[in-house]
Amino acid sequence: MPTTYSAEVSDSDFCEALLGTWRLTSYEMDVNGARLKPFGDSPQRYLVYTTDDHVFLQIATRAARVWPGPEFLGLPTAQRMAAVGVWVYCGRFEVADGQVVHKREFGILPTMSGNIEPRSVALESDRLTLGGPQGGRVEWQRVH
Description:
Elements: H1 11-18, E1 20-31, E2 34-36, E3 44-49, E4 54-60, H2 77-84, E5 86-96, E6 99-107, E7 116-124, E8 127-132, E9 136-142
Antiparallel strand pairs: 1-2, 1-3, 1-9, 3-4, 4-5, 5-6, 6-7, 7-8, 8-9
């Protein structure tokens, strides 16, 4: 199994190395130059890549939360994530040109449907690091 993405590793080999279940170890976003942990210090989260090119992601804060009012839809992404305390989506994925691309079919919010998110990717043994939107950095450990 390849340990890092490089020009010597084919997209299909790297895709195969991603398959399985991953547990979140760290998640941070850049918001106006400050590092933010929108789900707190120890969120619960899984990421699953399947052999038929599907991706499933689920995250939840451990803190108590209250569903926000209508003003919620006008908030920036990081604030919506923190307010809801849950982030869920599914769809398809592909590996291309040193990135993993998540093609969301639907998610917890209607605005998530149809989104395409290219993410930088690094894989070191059982550790996966994905770059996220808004300068996010998400680190995972392989479960299975």
